[in-house]
Amino acid sequence: MRNTSDHSSCELPESTGKKTRNQNRHYRFQDTFRWKGVRVQEYKSEGQDWHGIARQTLIGEGGETTKFHLRYFEIEPDGYSSFEKHKHEHVVIGVRGKGRARINRRNIGLNFMDVLYIKPDEPHRLYNPYNEPFGFFCIVNAKRDLPVPAGTKAPGDKGTKL
Predict the structure, then answer these.
(1) Which structural domain range is residue 68 located in?
(2) Is 156 helix (H, G, I), strand (E, B) or coil?
(3) What is the pLDDT of residues 36-47, one digit of tens each?
């Protein structure tokens, strides 16, 4: 019989919520689309161009050496993210409800397990016109530039204002 305190190489003990540099962690999923030991944060600390969106950083704030960060965002009904652009790319994976993405002038519907790639310098916004929360994973570069409003030029841009 197996001792329950032993773990195979594929199993990790549950996280205590305490993070140390580059330590193995396991965050237990809760039915409420929260992960035990991961704090819920505002989408951004400043700005008036977003509403009703929260984030949880699952991988990227615990001293990991990965070249990516994994975050979970949840947009409440009638909520939206900033309309912005930057030099890094995004991968968005819908995991709760449904929502929409504005990519430049195009609007795209996102459903459960849909995957959206947003290329560098592409103006984008995610939003939720529906009556249930829209949740998605967002994978971004660990080292990334700051976003700029989509209606302005980013430093180094060659071209006209959008």
Answers:
(1) 50-112+122-142
(2) coil
(3) 778 888 888 766
d(CA 103, CA 131): 22
Q: Residue 26 domain-assigned?
A: no
Residues designated as active site: 138
The verdict on residue 39 lying in a domain is no
CATH of the domain at 131: 2.60.120.10
Task: Decide if 154 is inside a domain.
Answer: no
First to last CA, the chain: 65
Q: Please count the structural domains in the chain.
A: 1
**Single-letter code of the amino acid located at 110:** L
Residue pointed to by tokens 């197996």: 2
Q: How many other CB atoms sit within 10 Å of the CB of residue 138?
A: 19
Please tell me whether the overall predicted TM-score, pTM, comes out greater than 0.85 for this model.
no
**DSSP label at residue 14:** P
**C-alpha to C-alpha distance for 136 and 94, rounded to whole angstroms:** 4
How far is residue 140's CA from residue 9's CA, in Å, rounded to a whole number?
27
